[in-house]
Every structure is written in structure tokens, then in C-alpha cells.
Design goal:
alpha+beta, three-stranded antiparallel beta sheet, Impact_N_sf, single chain, 2 domains, Ubiquitin Conjugating Enzyme, about 280 residues
Length: about 280
């Protein structure tokens, strides 16, 4: 990678970060125009807690996103900040291994860890006392997740990633017996990999004939109309008992309608591979 390409990818990374965290990061257009390696921005968790991000020449292929400095004023904030920075470092390393832009992913993970920090083992987030309704909701969610984890293990097959202009597309498929399998199977897939959890979109569709009745549904996960395209693919192939997921990691460059071709193609390939594997078995 030459210096100019590295610079453009780093600059696009910062632009996405500014769009997502306009209150946490302050940078005007003049500063953005004058950037040169190495350059830094400050991410504010609170008025007294912050960290400094640094981009170096070669990012993101030969240099990861760095933490150059951090600041916290109280001992409690220092512990809370360390939880956030641990999440940041973990995601920065994983993005580096994937040769992906990291700022948006790392800052999202760090901010989530900061907000979800639990002090002294008390199940109170952000030092607020949840009311009874919130506590009942948390209890119900915990039971639901436990039930999912106790469900039979689903055998997922994952296809080869497809790369186009820094975006990555990857498909996954598993067998389902009924509509009741969809959510626990999805949960199992997402819990199997932090990389999948950090995907920009995890769109899916499923189709199954249950007691003589065809059932089907889909979800775009923010990629408008992607789920319906996957559903159409399952329909025209007359698939039965199948849940297909396509993960996309956005690379900073808009692909237009080409993204739908990639989503459909990786889904079609994993369905072909899945069917061939089961026939061979």
C-alpha cells in the first residue's frame, strides 16, 4: 500500500467516525484538510475522561489503529476507562488482522464497554438504579437467552469472504426444522464470533415447510431490501428448512447496487456448497 492510499483510507475512517460521534469528537473541516501522518483525534467519554487515537502511515494494512494517550481524573473513572480501552484494543487487533478500518468499530465497542461498566458486582449500569419494570425486563431477557443456549446445537457452514473496494461479504447457512429454530440459531452464530458481532450488517432470510404450511421471513439489519432479496433467492430455489445469513463489513466506499449482487452471490454459493455437502454425506 502506498502512502496516498493509506492516507485516504485513514481520512475516510475519520470522516465516518465524525459522522457517528459528532459530540464525542470535535474536528472542523480545516483540520481535516490539513491532516498528515501521524495524526491524532481525541475521543471524549465524559468531560474528564478521554483517549487519543493515532493513525500512522501504512494504516490499516501494516499499521493498526493506535491508542496514543488516555486521561481519567478519579480512580473509579480509571477502572471504568480501562474496561473501555480493553475493548478498544481487542477490536483494533482483530480489525488489523482483517486489514479493515477500525475507528468506528473500536470507538463503538469502547463506548459500549464504558456505558455498560458494572461497579462492585452490582448489576447497575451507569450508576443508575433501574426501576422494577426494567429489572423484570432484564430477568425475562436472561431467561430467554438461557433457553436459547440450552437449545440443540445448530451446525453452521460459513463460506469464503468476498472483498470489493474494502467491503467484505460472507455468508452462513444452517438447517432449521421450524420457525422456532430461527432466533436460537442466530444467537448461536453471533455468539460464536466477535467479528460477526462487529459486522455492519447481518441480514438473513429463512424458509421452512412446517406441518404442510410454508413459513418464511427475513430481516435487512439496516441494509435496505437485502433481506427480501435473500428471501426471493430461497423462494426461487425452492429451499426448505434453511436459514441463510450474509454478513457485511463496510469498508468506507459505497458500492451502490453492486452490494446486492454480492449479497445474493455469496448466499447462492453457500447454499450450493451446503447442498453439495449434504448430498455427499
Amino acid at each position: 500500500m502506498d502512502s496516498s492510499e493509506s492516507f485516504e483510507r485513514a481520512r475516510a475512517d475519520i470522516e465516518m467516525l465524525l459522522a457517528a460521534f459528532d459530540t464525542e469528537i470535535q474536528m472542523n473541516d480545516v483540520e481535516l484538510e490539513r491532516l498528515q501522518f501521524p495524526f491524532q483525534v481525541t475521543f471524549q467519554f465524559s468531560p474528564t475522561v478521554s483517549c487519543v487515537l493515532e493513525w500512522r502511515e501504512g494504516y490499516p494494512l501494516t499499521e493498526p489503529l493506535h491508542l496514543a494517550a488516555f486521561r481519567a481524573s478519579t480512580s473509579h473513572d480509571k477502572v471504568r476507562l480501562e474496561a473501555a480501552l480493553t475493548a478498544f484494543r481487542q477490536h483494533a487487533q482483530e480489525c488489523f488482522e482483517l486489514q479493515m478500518e477500525a475507528a468506528l468499530t473500536c470507538c463503538s465497542a469502547a463506548l459500549q464497554a464504558w456505558n455498560e461498566y458494572i461497579e462492585d458486582g452490582n448489576h447497575i449500569t451507569n450508576n443508575e438504579n433501574p426501576d422494577d419494570d426494567e429489572m423484570r425486563l432484564s430477568s425475562n431477557e436472561a431467561v430467554t437467552k438461557t433457553e436459547y443456549l440450552m437449545s440443540p446445537s445448530y451446525q453452521w457452514m460459513t463460506g469464503e469472504p468476498l472483498l470489493d473496494r474494502k467491503s467484505t461479504f460472507q455468508a452462513h447457512v444452517c438447517n432449521i426444522q421450524s420457525d422456532a429454530d430461527v432466533q436460537p440459531a442466530l444467537l448461536q452464530l453471533l455468539q460464536s464470533s466477535t467479528k460477526l458481532q462487529r459486522a455492519t450488517h447481518n441480514m438473513y432470510a429463512w424458509r421452512v415447510c412446517q406441518d404442510g404450511v410454508w413459513k418464511h421471513d427475513n430481516d435487512d439489519d439496516g441494509e435496505d431490501a437485502a433481506g427480501s432479496r435473500l428471501a426471493h433467492l430461497l423462494s426461487v430455489r425452492n429451499e426448505n428448512g434453511v436459514l441463510v445469513v450474509v454478513s457485511r463489513w463496510f469498508g468506507g466506499i459505497h458500492l451502490g447496487s453492486k452490494r446486492f449482487a454480492h449479497i445474493t452471490n455469496v448466499a447462492r454459493q453457500i447454499l450450493d456448497d451446503y447442498k453439495a455437502n449434504h448430498i455427499a454425506a
